[in-house]
Amino acid sequence: MSASGTASAPVRAGSLNVLVLYYGGQVFSQSISVCGVTSIQLPLGAGEAVVTGLACPVKSGDKVSVTAALPVPVVTPPGTYEIKLVGADAKGSVLCIDINADLQ
User: Fold this and answer.
1) Structural domains of the chain, ranges and CATH numbers in brackets
2) 10, exposed or middle or buried, with CB in 10 Å at 0-12, 13-18, 19+?
3) Could you give the CA distance from residue 71 to residue 16 in angstroms, rounded to a whole number?
4) Is 45 helix (H, G, I), strand (E, B) or coil?
5) pLDDT confidence band for 104 (50 / 70 / 90)
6) Tens digit of pLDDT for each residue in 51-83?
7) How far, in Å, CA of 25 to CA of 30, rounded?
8) Distance between CA atoms of 73 and 11, rounded to whole angstroms?
9) Which residues of 64-81 are buried (b: 16+ CB within 10 A; e: fewer)?
10) pTM, rounded to two decimals
11) Residue 27 pLDDT more than 90?
12) Residue 4 · residue 67 · CB < 8 Å
C-alpha cells in the first residue's frame, strides 16, 4: 500500500497511530514514528509489517509518501477490515490514510 501527496505544512517529527479494525472492532493498535522506516511485529506470530513514513524534516510544498507492507497470514479470518494510519505532530494532524479491505 502506498499513498502520496504534497505537504501543506512542515513536519520535523511526530507519531503515526496504526489501527486495524475487524467488522468495526479494534484488533490491533500501535504508535510509531511518522518519520522513517519502522518494523511492527504483528500479534500471534503473524509476521512483520514495515511502514515507511515521511522523510523528515519535511517542508511545506514537499512531495511526500507513506508506504506499508502488510502481510496477510493464511490464518487471517475472512471479513471486512479497515486499516487506519493517523499521523500527528505537536501542532496536530499531519496525515490520515484509511484502507478498507474485504478478505474472502
Assistant:
1) 2-103 (2.60.40.770)
2) middle
3) 19
4) helix
5) confident
6) 999 999 999 999 999 999 988 888 889 999 999
7) 15
8) 34
9) bebebebeeeeeeeeeeb
10) 0.85
11) yes
12) no
